[in-house]
User: Fold this.
Amino acid sequence: MNETYSTSPGVEAEAAERYAAWFKALADPTRIRLLNLLAAEGRPMSVGEIVELASVGQSTVSHHLKILAAVRFVLPERQGTSTRYEVNRACLTVFPAAVRAILGEDEERASGC
Assistant:
């Protein structure tokens, strides 16, 4: 059976790419845990601090933070020779709007991330 997709008013291609990247970034339990840790701490944290609290290896934490930063779920801030990471609450608050847009329940598209 050949399915056809309506071209309007659906999700535009650019938004679909962005939303897919968001879901992909959240598709790992370690990344969810890291986001939760950063949100609970409510402050910028170094990789070393995150490693201590998350009980995950440094290279693993760095890898996952890089993915989360690529979609702007976390914001890296250089401080001297280290980088501190914090949750980008503005970005995460638009995530539910993306789900509504995908379901066709929201006229406004999720942006701001």
Observations:
- The CA atoms of residues 15 and 64 lie 23 Å apart.
- The helical segments are 13-25, 29-41, 47-54, 58-70, 89-93, 95-102.
- Confidence is low (pLDDT under 50) at residues 1-8.
- Strands lie at 45-46, 74-79, 82-87.
